[in-house]
Amino acid sequence: MSTAGVPDRPAPGPVPDPVPDPTLPVHALAAGDAPLDNPLKGFARFYQPGGDQNTGCPHSLTWSYFGLSEVMKDASDCGRYDWSALDDSLDAIAAAGNQAAVRFYMEYPGGSGSHPADAIPSCFAGHVNNRDNAYWGTTSPDYDSPRADDGADRTLSFAPTADWNTTGTTTVRLDLRAGTDNTVTLANADGWAPDIDRITVN
Q: What is the Cα–Cα distance from 142 to 184, expressed in whole angstroms?
């Protein structure tokens, strides 16, 4: 701080509008349509099945939700997907000349009108615990469950060995939670599985 002390505050009141530089040229702008040069930007309209995808405000992006249960329909196989619902919407959006942004969910309070409120895949039954969400009126899965996180069984290939007396080793990376609340199941629904003598977790 100088010996002169704190400087005076500026006088209160509105700041005057700046005066344009009179030496700058004036350009008259005519109204016109903007080019569609903003992919994946701007307003996004919700996808309406069977409707005109280009009504409403000008846009080049269409948004849609899908329940996970709408594509994971096989109660016995979380690795099998039916993409027909997504494909139908992508076809309609592309036919309208737009790009698509999509989101998959497992719970949507009240549903979206054309998609379910509870969209937990049936293949989670018996593997992922659920709880009732009284506030939103939905069923919530245990999002910390490795099965809910992975969403599918893992398929492993074991290299054959020369005979029953020759052992082989296969290394697999698994995402496990800290503690003892983990279950690793080895099975083959289509036939025989390899003879596994030991599992080591590092």
A: 17
Contact 89, 76 (CB under 8 A): no
How far apart, in whole angstroms, are the C-alpha atoms of residue 169 and residue 192?
Answer: 18
Residue 40 near residue 61, CB atoms below 8 Å:
yes
Q: Domain locations in the chain?
A: 44-150
- Residue 123's nearest CA partner among 87, 97, 150, 104 is 150
pLDDT tens digits for range 100-131 = 999 999 888 887 677 888 899 998 888 888 88
Pairing of strands 130-133, 61-67: unpaired
pLDDT tens digit sequence for 135-163? 888 888 887 776 666 555 667 777 888 88
